[in-house]
Amino acid sequence: MTEAQQDSNQPVESNDGARNVLDLGAFVGELTDEDDAASDDFSLQGLEQELEDCKTDDVVSMILSKGSSLRDYTRDVENNLRQTELESIEDYIKESDNLVSLHDQIHECDTILSQMENLLSGFQAEIGSISSDIKILQEKSMDMGLKLKNRKAAESKLSKFVEEIIVPPRLIDIIVDGEVNEDYMKTLEILNKKLKFVEVDSMVKTSKALNDVQPELEKLRQKAVSKVFDFMVQKLTALRKPKTNVQILQQSVLLKYKCFDKYVILFMKEHGKEVYLDVRAAYIDTMNKVLSTNIRAYIQALEKLQLDIATSNDLIGIDTRSTSLFLRGREPLKNRSAVFALGERINILKPPSALIKELKSYLFNAHLASSLVSLQEIDESALIPHIAEASSKKYPYEVLFRSLQKLLMDTATSEYLFCDEFFGEESMFYDIFAGPFLVIDEHMNTILPNCFDAIGLMLMIRIIYQHQVKYEVIGSSYLSSVQVLQHPHSDSFKFMYLNFSYAYLIMSRRRIPCLDSYLDKVNISLWPRFKMVFDMHVNSLRNANVRGLWEDDVRPHYVMRRYAEFTASLIQLNVDYGDGQLELNLERLRMSVDDLLVKLAKLFQKPKSQTIFLINNYDMTIAVLKEAGPDGGKIQMHFEEWLKSNTTIYVEELLAEHFHDLIKFVKTRASEDPRSGSGQPITASEVEIIVKDFGSRWKAAIELMHNDVITSFSNFLCGMEILRAALTQLLLYYTRLSDCTKKIAGGSALNKDLVSISSIMYEIKKYSRTF
């Protein structure tokens, strides 16, 4: 509201305190006809259309329904609007005081807000100043933190330097006067660090403190090396004492603490190289002599337990009757069978699959007694000579050989792991065992030239092969067989030992290669000797005195039995190995024995005796080969073919002996057709003689055949098979004779003399029931 308006309203407000209503009509005026006339100037174009559109409008419809003109109605509307406007203006005038008050309030608010703006601006300036101060403080704090960090780092290095370079009195006392024990080893570790710190750190070398400390450290180093050397010499001296258990001393003293090699041997290596080399050389020399002496004594003790199985005269083709009795007086007769037969000697090579089953049973049942009985012999502990000697037991050489190799391998494994763990040098093993290997080589060079036991040699070859393939241990989990057997709690230690020895079957973690070259060398020495002894057997058959070996007896010859047992033994020893070279040698041996057997058979005057002799020997050989294993291979098949062919020959000879006319007629005349007219026809009289002869004595002849077979063949089952084959062949011959009789003229008259086929079949079945 302007000031002019306020002045114009002032007199109205002062009239008796009452507000007069203004006459708005004087200001607005009234509508006149000129205004209506002026409205005629508007265009009426489109009015009709608008009217049409307004028909639907409710207001227009209401006006039209009342009959009022639009102009009148419009004037009423405008008057209403003007009146409403005037009323609204009056309402605003009535509220003018409130509007003024509101204006004043707004002005006051503007003033207050302006003051607040000034205050906040001051706050903002102060906050900016504080932020600048905080930033400065932050920079100072970071600078102080960096200085603190640097000072801490300097303090750490300085404290480390001081700690490493000073020599505490306690360290000096222990090094100089202390006993070599666990505390001494820890002190050695501390001294070792100080010496390394002085030698390695270049900054220390320029320190003035080093000039004061270095002489003392050098004296301590020399004293420590000297003391450790004396300790090692003392222990090495203990190793030289008789009856000292080396493994127990190594484990209970030298390896008592796992860190011993780290603190003692490493200390000597780094700070007393010359002394370490002296200790190393002394240990190698000591162990070389100790182990060589022990193995030599063990070999000498084993030699007293040796059972001589074969001599140079124990060959397949040698006549035992020509061998002097004095040469055999030293051996029991029952041991002679072991020359060619494997027997229970195979137990030393028990199959690994059976071992695994037994091991599982042993571990899960924890039944020590029963498990020790069924252990695989090749992995059993070495023999204890004085115990075996006290029991007056003798063993084939392969048992002693296995025991020697077992002792060597246990000792070698223990020593190899000790050298690796204690000295950190696996190469020392070969220097230490140069002497023991030489002792064993001398022993083998003495034994092998006098060994004529081919089966024993092959067993030793298989033992070496299994050791090469399977000998593995787990880390340091080992106990030597000597330690196990000498321990007072032998059963408990055997349980531990078996766990360690067989652990490679469950968890193969570490391969011990130290004996590879040795095992190869032994294997190379065994094969030529086996080949030589095997060739001696072959040559004994090739050069055999046939007349001297021959006996007027159709039963299996002892030379053939030797061959069968010898071949079966070697075949059994080759089952899991598939050695082609051994198979070729066995084929050579088979060819030689074939030639000898044929020569022996030809010395019989009667062909029938020759055939019986061959059948008996072939049958015996096949039986022996089958006992050794279900699969005899090519050799068994060869003898089965010869047995079959000679059985056929014998059947024909046996039938020809008792039914000569029948067989001759069937073979020569029965196949002819009587009605063909070619050649001389078969007559009834010719056949009648044969039919009546057969009918009169066929049962007696079969009985004679049965007796002949029973007395001729040593194997009853084989003889019965041959008899059944002979009777079956006889039935075939007689069937052909009967068929021929029906075809000839007048043959029907002979039907009364023919023996029925059913009768012959009954007789055959009667003899078949006997087996």
Automatic annotation (TrEMBL):
GO terms for cellular component: cytosol; GARP complex. Residues 91-260 form the Vps52 coiled-coil domain. Keywords: Golgi apparatus, Protein transport, Transport. GO terms for biological process: endocytic recycling; Golgi to vacuole transport; protein transport; retrograde transport, endosome to Golgi. Residues 285-350, 374-471, 505-650 form the Vps52 C-terminal domain. It is found in: Golgi apparatus, trans-Golgi network. Its main location: Golgi. It comes from the Eukaryota. InterPro entries: Vps52 (IPR007258), Vps52_C (IPR048361), Vps52_CC (IPR048319). GO terms for molecular function: syntaxin binding. The keyword Transport applies. Pfam families: Vps52_C, Vps52_CC. Belongs to the VPS52 family. This is Vacuolar protein sorting-associated protein 52. It comes from Salvia splendens (Scarlet sage).
